[in-house]
Each structure stands twice: as C-alpha cells, then as structure tokens.
Amino acid sequence: MRMTQGCFSFLPDLTDEQIAAQVQYCLDKGWAVNIEFTDDPHPRNTYWEMWGLPMFDLRDAAGIMKELADCRRVYGDRYVRISGFDSSHGWESVRISFIVNRPREEPGFRLDRQESVGRNIRYSTHAYAATRPEGERYADQ
Amino acid sequence: MNVQQSMTVRGKDRYKSGVMEYKRMGYWEPNYEPKDTDVIALFRVTPQDGVDPTEACAAVAGESSTATWTVVWTDRLTAAEKYRAKCYRVDPVPNSPGSYFAYIAYDLDLFEPGSIANLTASIIGNVFGFKPLKALRLEDMRFPVAYVKTFQGPATGIVVERERLDKFGRPLLGATIKPKLGLSGRNYGRVVYEALKGGLDFTKDDENINSQPFMHWRERFLYCMEAVNRAQAATGEIKGTYLNVTAATMEDMYERAEFARELGSNIVMIDLVIGYTAIQSMAKWARRNDMILHLHRAGHSTYTRQRSHGVSFRVIAKWMRLAGVDHIHAGTVVGKLEGDPNTTRGYYDICREDFNPLHLEHGVFFDQHWASLNKLMPVASGGIHAGQMHQLLDLLGEDVVLQFGGGTIGHPRGIQAGATANRVALEAMILARNEGRDYVHEGPEILAKAAQTCTPLREALDVWKDVTFNYESTDAPDFVPTPSMAV
C-alpha cells in the first residue's frame, strides 16, 4: 500500500528538483522549513523525530536539500517529511507538509475491531511495521 | 461633511402624548458619530410610495430598538437617548431608484452578551414586517471587539482542525453521499468507504438525512464509522464523515452527537434550520467534546438570495462565526448554486480573516476586527468537478473544503476512481502553483499532464469537461469598480 499522508502523496514521488521548488516556495513565504523522519506511520503519530531544529534562518533551498540528503543517508529506510512552519500571528502552525522519502515496502495497517456494548465497535489501527522495535522496522529492505 | 440637521424634538415636547414621526423622536441623528463600541447595521430600505426615505430609515432604527408607534411617557424612566438606535446616514442605493442604504448605530447595552438570538430578535425582529416599507434587507453588520469577545467563536477553528487532521497546504476534499435519500445504512457506508479510500478527506450527510424509515440514524452512524476506520487503515491518513445530528429537539441532538463521539467520529454536522440558539448550544458541545462542527446552511436562500428583501449571507456568515461553527457552506462561484465571485469573496474573507477592511466591491461595508476569534472553514459544494480545479483554487484559496458529490460518485469507473481523480487534480494544481506556474491559465494543461499518469482523472476530465453553470447572479455587489484617474 501507499501511505497517503502529506500534500503530494497521490502524485508520483517528487524528484529532488520538484522538492527544491516546494522548499523555495516555503522560503519565499518566510516559513521555517523542518525535516522530520519516522518509522511509525500511524496517522496519529504527530511527533516525528526532528532532523535538527527547524531551519528558521536558512534562506536557501540548496542548503535544505543538503540537509535532506544527509537525513536520507542515515534514515533512508524510513519516512521523511518536509514541512513549512508559519510563525505569524493567527496561524503559528504548519502551512504545508509533504513526504519526501518512503521505505521501499510499505506493509500498511491492520484494523482491529473489538465488539462492545450494543453494536458498538472499538477500532484501532496498527502499522504492521510497528510490531518491531523502533529502528528495526524496515530493516530487511 | 454632513450638512443635514437633526430634527429631534427635545425637552418636554418630545414626550407629549400622541404620534410623532420617528425622525423627530431621535432615531435620525445625521451628526451622530458611531462609537467604537456601537453595533452598526446597514439596511437596504425600500419605502412604500410616498413615504419620506429619511422617515422610513428612522423608523427602521426605531422599530429595531426602543420605539413603538406612539410616544410613551415611560421612556422618561430610562436613559432613553442612549438606548435609541440612531440612523446616522442615508445614501441612495446606486442604480436602484427608490432604495436607500440606512446606517444605524446601536448602543452595546442593547444586547445580551454572547447571544445571537438576542441580537437577531432586535435587528431582524419586528422591523421586517413594518407596513411603511415595501422591502427591507439587512446588508451588513459591524460588531465591536467588546461584543465579539463575548462569543466563543468556532469550536475548533481552521488551524486546529488542520492540526487534528494532519492535513496542511491544500484544500480539504469532501463529497456528499448521493442519492441523499433512500440508501440503507449498509449501502450508505459503502459509499463513504469508497470515497474516503479513493482519496477524499471527508464525506458528508446531506441536510435532510436525519432518521427516516429507510435508515435510522444509529444504523448510519455505525456503518459510517466502520467505513471511516477501514479507509483510515487502508490509507494511513485521518478520515472523517460529517454525521448529521439535526433532530427535532435538543435532547435528540445531544443524544446523536454523544453517540457520534462514542464511536470516535471527529466531526458532527447540523443544519442552519435548527435555529441560532441550538447552533450555539451545539458549538459549546463541540468545544467540550473536541469535535469539529459542520454547518449546512439549509434554508438560507429563502431570505438571502433576493437583493431587495431579507438578510445578506454575509451577515449570516458573521453570526455563524460568532455562534461558533467550524465549517459553513459559502458558495462555489463556478458550481450550480447562486454565487457572484466578488460577493462570494466577501463571504470567504469574513470566515477566514482576522480583520476585514471595508471593501464595497466585495459587499463588505465595514471594517471588522475579529479579535483572534477562531477562523471558520468555508465549504464549496454543489456542481463542481475536477476539471475546474485551477479556477476553484484561484477563486476560493487554500483554506476551504471542496466538495465534489456528483463529481466523485458519478465517475464512470466508480466512487474510488472519482475520489482519486479529484485528489490527483488537487495535488497537481497545488504543486504547480507552489512552483510559481501561472496555474489559472495553464490549469487545463496541468490537469491533462497529471491525467497522463492517472486514468481516473483522464476519465473525469472527459466526462465533465464542458459542464458549467453560467447564469446571472441575483446577488451581486451594488458597487462596481470605476477606473481611477491615471497619475
């Protein structure tokens, strides 16, 4: 399966040139670009690991692409996303977020159902990969 | 510069028993400067033939505040001058002989804090049936910050909604389940699942899906949540479906909303026809229960559509932002329902900005500060399809839910394909916009390119390529831009 979080997951994987253009868009808007990675793709896993701090002062897409290359070298078997953070009043949150790296195989999610009172069912979603400890989840690839 | 004189009778003569013209009773004060703390209303007043326009406008001020048809001595037991609404400006409506814009200021003490019901009981209470008027329309209102701050505002707001859904940088995508009546719970959930799995973020109950013989509400909720959770696991993305909790009584609505919460829904829905008080109750419930609150503006066109009489939708949008809903249908411009581009732009600004500057070409008559009240997500729904994506993004921006009901479910290869077509079209357009391309003009090319790697999009473009709804709008702004002198 293909996990479809982020802004561009329904398009073919972005090339580095396309990623750089999106990064430049964020920089032109004055947003801080952030690189994050994870091997737990659960839809409610909010806090992916940060590859350093958000780059508040970096104004050059090439510099961010170099950081991305470094991140991929270490965590190329995990999900990596780029986000643009807008600190202006009234927003103070993420403005855009998109995936720039994926594990080669995405085994997807298991949906568990627990029958409850009446016909009520409690649902929970498990990433198959997350049954293994962090760091070993996509290790076979 | 206002050279008109006040006609107000003062002192003892003002309270002589009998009938006195409204403009002489203190409801016409051309030299009054509205205070920052006043509520201001702008009415379009069309007096009956032979009625003096100033008197008609003063009567609107009177009948929407303290006046009755005759002088009463009991006014003298109050600080009557403070409580009188004051019409301070009357302008002829451009290109509309016989109609006048009346600007009326109301002291803040006339209103109960935090109550849309109280506000509307004054402003659109008795006065709309007043005999000396042929027609009356409430065009716009200005609320002072002190009053705005007495309202909760949107339970969730655009920013927190996006954070909860983990969706940033693009409009959200939705679809209303069709046919809107007749599906059983089990069949209904099938449509929800297909649409969400195919790529939509939300699906939606229609306004009149409540609890009918073909589908009891609990059936709908149970099957819909199965569909939402299945789609979430199939995509790794957060999904939602607006469960319509509209019902006959507040008790029923609370029961339905609580069941939705129990099942893990992240959003519930209400219809405008439940009334302002019920809407505010549900907004408070939604905030207490971490729930996004969708409002379907069912019924609004009965009073918003005609320019001569009723209430402008921009006023309804302001009331609903105060009342505290998170989503409101605000027009598509290009779709099947009424919507002039400039007027619609005005509605969207009212929903989404922290400050609305006066902008007559968009029908916005006042500066409005929202004092950090949450932003309200506009929803565009009705007769839109993937082939219009560049226009929709240009006209409506990024913070909007685009709802393609027919444009998803009517896809020749099925609902999932329809949803995928919409999602791919949207992502391709955002990508192109962010790359700095002239996406409005190159839109068809961008879509055609994206369709090369997405068969469902190609099929959608083929089926709906020429569908447009070009009819003249019945509610365009009165002020059109005039070219300014070149300097």
From TrEMBL, chain A:
Stated name of the protein: Ribulose bisphosphate carboxylase small subunit
InterPro entries per UniProt: RuBisCO_ssu, RuBisCO_ssu_dom, RuBisCO_ssu_sf
Signal sequence range: none
Annotated GO biological process: reductive pentose-phosphate cycle
Domain Ribulose bisphosphate carboxylase small subunit stretches: 4-103
GO MF annotations, alphabetized: ribulose-bisphosphate carboxylase activity
PANTHER family for this protein: RIBULOSE BISPHOSPHATE CARBOXYLASE SMALL CHAIN 1, CHLOROPLASTIC (PTHR31262), RIBULOSE BISPHOSPHATE CARBOXYLASE SMALL SUBUNIT (PTHR31262:SF23)
Family recorded in the similarity comment: Belongs to the RuBisCO small chain family.
Organism expressing this protein natively: Bradyrhizobium macuxiense
Job description of the protein: RuBisCO catalyzes two reactions: the carboxylation of D-ribulose 1,5-bisphosphate, the primary event in carbon dioxide fixation, as well as the oxidative fragmentation of the pentose substrate. Both reactions occur simultaneously and in competition at the same active site. Although the small subunit is not catalytic it is essential for maximal activity.
Subunit structure: Heterohexadecamer of 8 large and 8 small subunits.
Miscellaneous comment in the UniProt entry for this protein: The basic functional RuBisCO is composed of a large chain homodimer in a 'head-to-tail' conformation. In form I RuBisCO this homodimer is arranged in a barrel-like tetramer with the small subunits forming a tetrameric 'cap' on each end of the 'barrel'.
Keywords: Calvin cycle, Carbon dioxide fixation
Automatic annotation (TrEMBL), chain B:
Lineage top rank: taxon: Bacteria
Signal peptide range: none
Pfam entry (one): RuBisCO_large
GO BP field: reductive pentose-phosphate cycle
Cofactors named for this entry: Mg(2+)
Keywords: Calvin cycle, Carbon dioxide fixation, Lyase, Magnesium, Metal-binding, Monooxygenase, Oxidoreductase
SUPFAM superfamilies, A to Z: RuBisCo, C-terminal domain, RuBisCO, large subunit, small (N-terminal) domain
Cofactor notes: Binds 1 Mg(2+) ion per subunit.
CDD domains, sorted: RuBisCO_large_I
Site, as annotated: Transition state stabilizer: 336
UniProt key word Oxidoreductase: yes
Enzyme Commission (EC) number: 4.1.1.39
Binding site for Mg(2+): 204, 206-207
Name of the protein this chain belongs to: Ribulose bisphosphate carboxylase large chain
Gene name, Swiss-Prot/TrEMBL: rbcL
